[in-house]
Structure formats: C-alpha cells, structure tokens
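Researcher: Please predict.
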Amino acid sequence: MAQRLKKIISGGQTGGDFGGLLAGKELGLLTGGTAPKGYLTDAGPNLKLKDYGLEEGEYDPKTYPKRTMKNVDAADLTIAFRFGGSAGTDKTIGYANTG
C-alpha cells in the first residue's frame, strides 16, 4: 500500500534545504527538523526556521553533526540533491545508507 508524504524534515542551512521547507508549507505538509545551534545557515542566523517547526540543535564541533543524524533518523526517506562536491551531503548520504 502506498504511503502519502506527510512531513518535510530539513536542517534549513542552504537554499535547497530551505526550498524543501517552503515547498512543504505550500503543499500543506508538516515541516520540521533540527537546525544548527543558533539557527545558523550559509547566510547567517535565520530565526524564521522556527516558523517551519525546526528546533535548535545543540552545539557540536564534530565534522558530522549529531543534528544531521537526528534529521535522517526522524525520516522514513532521505533525499539528497548533489550538484557538486559537498562533504556534508556526502556524509548525510553515507549515514542514510547505514540505516
């Protein structure tokens, strides 16, 4: 039996991540996830992420943050769009493949 998409989970750091949240809201889906400490994005802090149900993650100085693993673990499916080299995206894909 096919399942219907119910929620978009994202960390909200970049345009693509935020685009998923925007699309989810537009489609009437739930949105959420765990954002970096301080709601930090590539463009600086973005407190609007709270409006999309994102929670602030804990500070994690590791190369592969716990918040990313938390987002993957909370999802039934993880989709990654990769158009060039991205250590973070590569690690997300690798972690998602371990589940």
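Model: Strands lie at 7-9, 30-35, 40-41, 44-45, 54-56.
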